[in-house]
Amino acid sequence: IVSVLSSAIIVYRLPWTWKCSKLLMKFIHAGLNTTAMILAIVSMVAVFEYHNAMNIPNMYSLHSWIGLIAVILYSLQLFLGFVVFLLPFAPIRLRAALMPIHVYSGLLIFATVIAAALMGITEKLIFALGSAGYSSFSPEGIFVNCLGLLIVIFGALILWMASRPHWKRPPEENAKVQRPNGGAPEGIEAESTMTDCSNADKSDVGFNSEAARKRNLKLDEAGQRSTM
């Protein structure tokens, strides 16, 4: 779930996807989020069935609370994302107003999922080894702790990519320019630079011609004076 959700978050942040249409990236983003939601539902059903089969109480730990909150928030996020951003019925002003909330809630849900995963693997390890076995630096405990650190580093990297302004997808007009038929933005910048340079050259030429004309007038006046 963490890997699929992280892919859905950074799908807009990959520079090689900026050449693709915004609609295509919306469908990919929605598809990845839907896949993560299906995996979350299947996982919750499996956990409840296992607890009921083993006569284990449900929803007593902080891990279960955080996990259920993440699933509920994720379902609301997915529903609003479909209605507001994927379907072409919501007005542009509503989309613009809800976009910061949509982005922030997505990152919050991602951080909540990571927290639930860390608490889940720790809880499972303590149940399997016991408090005495876990505190004795067993190989299983060290392996799970290293896995938790890797999950934290991975989550921090995804959040860093999602929060960098230069990783943000350019506006749609710039994205159109980046398509193969339109060239790259650097081409436009280069063209504008060349235009500015050509204008500057023209101004320099005009200035030089004006200076040459004044110099010729001065020479003519000097010649006339010498003749008189």
TrEMBL record:
Q: Which cofactor does it need?
A: heme b
Q: Where in the cell is it found?
A: Apical cell membrane
Which UniProt keywords are given for this protein, alphabetically ordered?
Cell membrane, Electron transport, Heme, Iron, Membrane, Metal-binding, Oxidoreductase, Translocase, Transmembrane, Transmembrane helix, Transport
Residue ranges of the TM segments:
23-45, 65-89, 101-122, 142-162
Q: Which GO terms describe its cellular component?
A: apical plasma membrane; lysosomal membrane
**What PROSITE patterns does the record tag this protein with?**
CYTOCHROME_B561
PANTHER family of this UniProt entry? Answer: CYTOCHROME B561-RELATED, PLASMA MEMBRANE ASCORBATE-DEPENDENT REDUCTASE CYBRD1
What name does the UniProt record give this protein?
Plasma membrane ascorbate-dependent reductase CYBRD1
Record the organism: Penelope pileata
Q: What is the lineage of its organism?
A: Eukaryota, Metazoa, Chordata, Craniata, Vertebrata
